[in-house]
Amino acid sequence: MRSQRNSGLAGRLTLLVVTCLCAFHTTTAIDIPLEVLGHVNIEQLPTITDQAPSSLIAFPFDESFPMTCEAKGNPEPKFQWEKNGEDFDPYLDPRLMKEENSGTFVIPNNGNLTEYQGTYRCYASNKLGTAISKEIEFIVPNVPKFPKEKLDPVEVEEGQPFILKCDPPTGIPPLQIYWMTINLQHIEQDERVSTGLNGDLYFSHAVEKDSRRDYCCFAAFHRIRTIVQKTAMSVNVKTRGGDRSESANAILERKPSLLTPPGGSSEKQLVKGEDLELECIPEGIPTPQVEWIKIGDQLPVKAKLENHRKLLIVPRAQQEDSGKYMCRARNPLGEVVHYFTVTVEGPPEWESEPQSQLSMIGSHVHIKCSARGVPEPTITWRVNGQLLQDSPAANRKILGDAVFLQNAKASDSAVYQCEASNRHGTLLSNANIMIMNLQPMILTNNGEDYSAVEGKGVMMHCKVFSSPPSAITWSRDDSSESVAGPRFTFHDNGSLEIHSAEKGDVGQYTCLAKNTEGSSAIDAVLYIKDPTRIVVAPKDLQILKGSAAQLSCLAEYDESFSNDFELLWEKDNTQIVLNYTENPRYIMEDGYLNISDVSHGDQGVYSCVAKTPLDRDTASAFLMVLDVPVAPENLVLSEHKSKSVKLEWIPGDDHNSSPTEFIIEFEENKWEPGNWKELLRVPGNHNSAILRLHGHVEYRFRVYAISAIGAGLPSEPTERYKTPPSAPDKNPENIKIEGHLPHEMSINWEPLLPIEHNGPGLEYKVSYRRQDGQEEWTEHTVKRHSFVVRNTPTFVPYEVKIQARNNQGWGPEPRIVSGYSGEDFPSAAPDDVAVEVMNSSAVRVTWTRVHKDKLHGHLGGYRINWWRLRSLVDSKKSHGDKHSLAFPGDRTHGTVPGLTPFSEYSLIVMTFNGRGNGPGSHPVNFKTPEGVPEKNPVLRVTDVKRNSVSLAWAPPLEPNGILTGYVLEYQLINDTEEVGPLQAVNISNPDTTKWILHELEPLSKYKLYLRSCTAVGCGPVVSEESTTALETSLASVHGGISTQGWFIGLMSAIALLTLIVLIACFVNRNKGGKYSVKEKEDLHPDVESQGINDDTFCEYSDNDEKPLKGSQRSLSREIKAADSGDSLVDYGDEDVQFNEDGSFIGEYGSRKEKRASAEVKASTQTPA
Question: In Å, what is the CA distance from 163 to each residue of 217, 281, 286?
């Protein structure tokens, strides 16, 4: 998007005056700009612009060696060379290659370079002065060689120290020493054997394996690409014969001493920036351990120990690393120490480097030069390449570290050289001192246009060259006054900087430069632009590998940049360049960056760059790519034992989702080859584990990581690891003692897995005895995992134990398990069975326990069987289906729910065990009180008139008591938010099945509610909707139909059919009760604990009972009889169980009782 803002010239700023002094270049070599030289021919002192390095090494593989010396000045400088302090003219040597108008010459590598070896210096001169280069040393290295020599064999007693000398030849550093055999195999080095800094090979004590005839020292000079070899050396270790006793070994032991350095102390000097290397190589038996201490201080943080702690290295040593160091070598017999006094010196460094200056005639010039270093550098002054004392001047003095020129003249222009040197190096600086007068020359173009972003800074330039320095003033819009204020900064180079530019800063500015020689001025115009800013920045994302990512970015910018605005995307500070051929996954469109199929390489910082020619804004977001962890690597087995091994691994890349755990799997090649199984889980911050193993198994292991993203790939498997055979580690588990028959006891157990056998020949020893006696154990050995003990007494406690063994021996001592022999049916029934009626549909049953001697097994609980004898509405008995509930455990009561109200029932109680049910108790009869009726099965509208509606209904199929009448309610529910008041009609005649509602509003919708009632209360509601009609239209239709013969015949047939259905329903009702799913849901909690009363089973919930607006129904629609619904108890012999508190633990089982649907004949008669 782009913000639309107006830009243009604003009101003028208050004009203030400011003046600055400006001179061209005050701290660097003076360069006369080309713009000045185009108008005035100004002479310049020579300046060295390029030169060869201080050391130029003639490597044999280089073709030539340039001695570079380039300079500039006006007039053009001329060049001269010195070699070793004497004049050297390259033009006199035809072998040297020269370049025109240059001081550079090239030495060709023609094989004869020694005569050019030496120290060179270049002089660049014109009539104003002379500049000199640093000294350049041209080095021609010799090819290093070991001398040809015959070396005697080294004879050494076993246990004694010895040293093999290398004495490498000198050459161009760095030097690297290698000790190898003739076959170029490295000599193994450790705490006993090591190479010193001088290249010698040190042995703290000799052992027999040190004897060999091909110890070779190789010296490698990498810069000249040369490796030279010393004559092979022979070592013969004389052993102490066959005496290997402890006393002989004790004689060999001795306290430490140092092979190097000698003595108790030494001094070490080095140059700052070099690596400090201190070495202590001890000898002794046992091999001494070395430790390092800095006296009075801690070892430098950057210090490191190498060569088995024998070498202390402090990289890039500084002055603070000076001091006293100590090494200590110790073993159980004693210790030895050596002290190092370390001094870190340094080459010269500039404290104040002389600077080139442009000064006016008659001024005083101050040239300062100072340097620091260790030792203190010596300062040498030169002018035009000559020592200052060899070129005296009356107005020049040296005071301390500075040269002073008083009342300088144009002829005092010269090149001054300051050289600082000590034994570690030399610094040289040329300072061009120009003495001249020149009127101001403004080098910046006139009429420049500048643009600035509102709120940002802008710099308007006014580059001036003059001597003496000019006074610079900036004014605005043809005003004679100059601008100033806290937002304006005037720089020494003449530029005007405006901070936090405002719209009012727009306008024309003038730069005026004045000095004693004259003045000059230029104009510039400033425009202010709206800033570019990102208004919708990309947000950090976490993306699963393989999915798509989208980053969004929206920016505003000045409308003048419509053709120059760019919205770019960068990844990790590198611009994303679209190439649909090479990288089609990146799509940039309308400020969105879409990346498809994200990979790990897409992770990084993505930056949206909104860019105009004047400014830019950037916003970044981090895209994190999530993936499952990479497979662990480098699995290593260690600490090998007969039944365990240690596994270590290196975790793979976690892909930004740290492992929560590692899973170790195993595979064995005997029982289930190729099948990997989980062995162990360890936390995600571990990388090793001790694995407990079985005997006589060949294992392989692998590891994979699990993170929040998922499971990674498994590692490569380890090599095979075979454990030896062993006795079993465990005995069978989950031993079950069961008695399926009265005189048998069956013993079963889980067999050991094949991998748990730990070896061949597995079998089990089964031991058993009676628990209540002092019998000896009866033992049997079997290979299967079951055993049957026969001829046991009925339900007697036994002790059993099972032990595993194989060819290697017995498993651990088994634990003893108790159990009983076979059960028989209980032989007694509960006594004192009593029934307490709780409400119309539930009773509480109590009884006395059956004695345990009559149980003949484990008590399973008690079971109540009950059946309905008859409904109390009529006197006809109809024996209903039997129902059953089981109450587990030892208890004396239970609650029977779901009974039909106003009925007579009978029940019995029995106990049961694992074998089955015992005999039942004497039957107990009881009656349930009245309840509320069921919902009426049918309610329908039979006739509709202008002010009345005729209704007909069927009585409830299960009245649950003596019907006392009906409650008929109705209310107006026209298509509005409000409903009319609820009006009620109490119908006291229970035989009434039809009614006419009068005085209704014409053409209005009503909702009608009907409930059946007993003395206890009213039952659930059934509802219907109806709309009254216009009398004219409905009356004509009604009159036309009701007078037809076929209509009268149809109504008579319907009335007869309805009577038949009602009679069938009445008969069916007396067959036995069912209760509804609603009652099942209400009774599912603990009936006893909730204090059940009669009202509990009278509540109902139906959307139809709510006086809310309903949908319009057709007057002629078909009315379906209400379904009796699912019942909680379906009669049958299946067991239904309750928890100890009486709640359900099972479902009823019985035959489902079917009920008939009923239709009620429509009638227009009004009750009398």
Answer: 13, 11, 18
CA distance 321 to 280: 19
CATH architecture designation of domain 533-626: Sandwich (2.60)
pLDDT digits (tens, 9 = 90+) for 412-469: 899 999 999 999 999 999 999 988 888 899 989 999 999 999 999 999 999 998 888 8
- Report pLDDT for 1057: 86
pLDDT (tens digit, 9 = 90+) per residue, 912-936? 998 899 999 999 999 999 999 999 9
Nearest to 524 by CA among 444, 597, 598, 465: 444
Helices (H), 512-610: none
Helix, strand and coil content of the chain, in percent to the nearest 5, comes to: 10, 45, 50
Burial class (CB in 10 A: 0-12, 13-18, 19+), 1132: middle
Question: Which amino acid, one-letter code, is at 856?
Answer: H
Q: How far apart are CA 1065 and CA 936, in angstroms?
A: 12
Helix axis angle for 1031-1042 and 1045-1069, nearest 10°, is: 90
The pair of three-digit structure tokens given for residue 550, joined into one six-digit string? 């989208």
Q: Do 728 and 758 meet the contact criterion of CB atoms below 8 Å apart?
A: yes
Taking alpha carbons only, the member of 1064, 1075, 1067, 1069 closest to residue 1131 is 1075
Please report which confidence band the pLDDT of residue 1140 belongs to, taking 50, 70 and 90 as the band edges.
very low
Burial 886-921 (b: 16+ CB within 10 A, else e): bbbeebeebbbbbbbbbbebbbbbbbbbbbebbebb
Q: In 917-1068, which ranges are E strands?
A: 924-927, 939-944, 949-953, 965-972, 983-987, 994-997, 1005-1013, 1022-1027
CATH code of the domain occupying 42-139: 2.60.40.10
Residue 504 has phi, psi (to 5 degrees) of -70, -10
What one-letter code names the amino acid at 140? Answer: V
Strand partners, 773: none
Domain ranges for the chain, please list them: 42-139, 353-436, 441-529, 533-626, 633-723, 736-820, 834-927, 938-1028
CATH fold of 353-436: Immunoglobulin-like (2.60.40)
Distance, in Å, from the CA atom of 383 to the CA atom of 415, rounded to the nearest integer, reads 6
Provide the CATH topology of domain 736-820: Immunoglobulin-like (2.60.40)
Q: Are 330 and 289 in contact (CB under 8 A)?
A: yes
Max alpha carbon distance in the chain (Å)? 156
Segment 936-995, tens digit of pLDDT: 999 999 999 999 999 999 999 889 999 999 999 999 987 777 788 999 999 999 999 999
d(CA 857, CA 824) in angstroms, rounded, equals 6
Alpha-carbon distance of 437 to 925, in angstroms, equals: 139
Question: 55-57 and 136-139: which strand pairing?
Answer: parallel
Q: Do domains 736-820 and 834-927 have the same CATH topology?
A: yes
Beta 518-529 vs 448-453: how paired, if at all? parallel
The DSSP bridge partners found for residue 123 are 80, 132
In degrees rounded to 5, what are phi and psi of residue 311? -125, 125
Q: Rounded CA gap, 292 and 280, in Å?
A: 9
pLDDT of residue 43: 83
The CATH homologous superfamily to which domain 938-1028 belongs is: Immunoglobulins (2.60.40.10)
Distance CA 865, CA 880 (A): 12
- C-alpha angle 753-759-761 in degrees, rounded to nearest 5: 90
Specify the CATH architecture of the domain 633-723.
Sandwich (2.60)
What is the tens place of the pLDDT at every residue in 826-836? 999 999 999 99
pLDDT for position 579: 65
Phi-psi region of 755 (alpha: psi -120 to 50; beta: other; left: phi over 0): alpha
Q: Tell the CATH superfamily of the 441-529 domain.
A: Immunoglobulins (2.60.40.10)
